[in-house]
Design a protein that fits this description.
By secondary structure, the chain is mainly α. It contains 3 helices and no strands.
Length: 89
């Protein structure tokens, strides 16, 4: 039960972070709007939806969802900072 939920949560987080990374690689540092016409953006939205749906089914779901979103946002910020530092060198 609990271990299975942890495994699923970890899987969802890994997929979400991978989707964030793919969007950062494609759109990071560019003056271009990321829209659902790009499959990477569609994938990112689907991963967020999966994380939210998983979180809403659990009693502690909101905390897990908040943790997932914070982790994804932190990853995106680190990637943007690294990209900015690379372009400034």
């Amino acid at each position: 039960g609990s271990q299975n939920n942890d495994t699923k949560r970890q899987f969802l987080l890994e997929r979400l972070l991978d989707a964030v990374k793919q969007c950062q690689i494609r759109f990071g540092g560019r003056k271009e709007i990321a829209s659902d016409s790009d499959s990477r953006v569609t994938c990112l939205c689907a991963q967020f939806e999966a994380v939210l749906q998983h979180g809403l089914k659990r009693s502690r779901g909101l905390a897990l969802t908040a943790a997932a979103l914070k982790q994804a946002a932190g990853f995106a910020s680190k990637t943007e900072t690294a990209a900015a530092e690379t372009t400034q060198v």
